[in-house]
Amino acid sequence: MNILLIGSGGREHALAWKLRQSPECTKLYVAPGNAGTATIAENVPLPGSHDDEAAFHRIAGFVKEKDIHLLIVGPEAPLVAGIRDYFEQQADLSHVALVGPGRVGALLEGSKDFAKAFMLRHGIPAAQSRTFTQAQVHEGLTYLATAPLPIVLKADGLAAGKGVIICDTLQQAQKTLKEMLLQEKFGEASRKVVIEEFLEGIELSVFVLTDGKHYHLLPEAKDYKRIGEQDTGPNTGGMGAISPVPFADEAFMQKVQEKIIRPTVAGLQEEGIPYRGFIFIGLMNVQGEPYVIEYNVRLGDPEAEAIIPRLQDDLVPLLMATANQSLDQMPVNISTDTAATVVMVAEGYPGPYEKGKKIEGLPQTGKALVFHAGTRAGSPTEGAPVLTDGGRVLAVTGLGKDMAEALQISYEQVHQIAWEGQYFRTDIGKDLQTWQPGGNL
Ligand code: AMP
Ligand code: GLY
């Protein structure tokens, strides 16, 4: 069958790599893709954004023209904007198997206030919180004055991963709240702000594939969010990932399933919210108890680059079963290997950075999986086949029998790749390597 994958990051290269291995995949298109996806699929340069009605119209035209049967939406924005609803409303598109929730299901990521209220309704453990609108700014400021520090302020809507601010002082919190609500620091997304209790613990990314009735737990991963070694400096989209995660042992994952995943899937069903796609639950392990920090309606990046290589089954029938609500018929087998992903970024990221640097040392073959994130193919006059085209440029995954081997494979490859100003963290996985059962990180 012909498949279209929407997106352009490392997550999409990893998905494309996996889809390409399926005997059921005839032709794979990635829109818009990157220089990595171009080597295994056909990139489709659908112009403009991918998250409005005009974009859906262009995508629909392509789907009809190329007889696409499976449409996978990598990033959240088209889902939050209602790409599924658009497809379901057109009679000549409703046969397309689409992976990703509709507009209402996507609110789990698209509105933090919606997600908090959902969790409250279904008894799902999460940080205590209150939501304030523009009109309630004074109540919000008063609330902050009595709240314990640090305190977490979250823009309600999508803010490209920048909408969460952890404030250590009351002064900073009040200033930030005013900026978010009154000056719309994150545009429309911060017209409502969720003020939330700070949770102290270890973070974990948990992934679920659901057809709305049944679900499968996918491998979990730990993401390294800060730019600097030992988790210092500003937050990024993710500097590395490890899967599996030693502290996510059977007892803990049992709690995650009972207290979080089952009530989430059942809650969606009870509320009549159809959901066919991935749910990514960012959670905090607080002294052995899981609390949801956020829901996302897609796979994580760079987590996808670590978890997809551990999936032993053909992804195409699995995604078809997701769209056709027959996931209970499909087993999911996960490799016991460890995956370690190291992200190589541009100098200056997550602040301003330059693009168009020539990447050298990209392997043709090798032990590591080199997933492209922000890259583009160079033209003959540019002097290199692949150029940097984003902040996060490459995600290099090693798979090994244990974390040490996985890291060795990944870093060996990373050290062979170079461009002007490249940067990566050298301590991915280090904290987990020394972790002992019952220990803290
Ligand atoms: P997000 O942009 O939603 O991924 O959040 C960014 C980061 O903020 C998360 O990965 C956590 O490290 C942190 N965070 C969010 N909510 C909380 C919370 N309630 N307590 C502590 N840290 C949090
Ligand atoms: N790695 C975190 C995310 O994809 O949101």
Overview of the molecule:
The protein has helices at 10-20, 53-65, 77-80, 83-89, 107-110, 112-121, 137-146, 170-181, 250-270, 303-307, 315-323, 403-414, 430-433; strands at 2-7, 27-32, 42-43, 68-73, 97-99, 129-133, 151-155, 164-167, 192-197, 202-210, 215-217, 222-223, 226-228, 232-235, 240-243, 277-286, 289-296, 338-345, 369-372, 375-377, 386-388, 392-400. It has 441 residues and is an alpha+beta fold. It has a five-stranded parallel sheet, with helices on both faces. It has a five-stranded antiparallel sheet with strand order 12-15-18-22-19. α7 (137-146) packs antiparallel against α8 (170-181). The model has no long low-confidence stretch (mean pLDDT 95). It binds adenosine monophosphate and glycine (GLY). Glycine binds next to loops.
**Spatial strand order of the main sheet:** 3-2-1-4-5
Helical fraction equals: 25-40%
Terminus-to-terminus distance: 46 Å
| Helix/strand structural class | alpha+beta
The number of helices is 13
**Strand content of the residues, in percent?**
25-35%
Ranges where pLDDT stays below 50 over 5 or more residues in a row are none
Tally of DSSP β-strands: 22
Q: Judging from the principal axes of the Cα atoms, what is the shape?
A: globular
**Distinct small-molecule ligands in the complex:** adenosine monophosphate, glycine
Please outline the major beta sheet: 5 strands, parallel
Mean pLDDT: 95
Task: State Rg.
Answer: 21 Å
